[in-house]
Amino acid sequence: MNSATTLPDGASVAVHAPRLLGLYLLLILVAAIEAFDGLSHAPILFDDMSKIPGPGLGGSIIKTYIASHPLLALAALALATVGRLRYAIIVLGALVLVTWLNFMPSVVRHEFDFRGVSAFETPVRIIAFPLMAACAIALAARGQRLGLATVLVSIPTLYGVFAVIAFGIGVILYGF
Prior knowledge:
By secondary structure, this protein is mainly alpha-helical. It has one domain. The protein has helices at residues 21-41, 56-81, 85-110, 118-142, 146-174; strands at 2-6, 12-16. α1 (21-41) packs across α5 (146-174). The radius of gyration is 20 Å and the shape is globular. It starts with a strand and ends with a helix.
């Protein structure tokens, strides 16, 4: 949001609204978590490719996801760090959509699983997260409601973090 200020000599200068530090910090945190996750899976690409399930198009989608995840996450981290909020949101939204695409070979092969925990998790990961990412990308591309766009694009990553924490607590309490 820029506004113009007129100087005494008649020239006008654009004045930038104060930066939204909380949004930048949230995006940096989310991008760092995604970069760590993506980089931790990257060695799979240099290992035996038979470990990647699914021949044909499904296997290619999974390999593309493994290769693009750290690149998109590091790009989002760099953009958020240098203050390009809109672009960081768009890249993180693209990462959520690529993650959704990564789930599609399993959905096609095994269909929707609505038993147990999957009754909640499957619709969230397959339906809600891609819609939230698309909305965040649209808002960021238009430069509108960047706070909402940041929250929408951050929810999938934070959901994953909380799921890992909940699993760890469950293992601690009840054993594996």
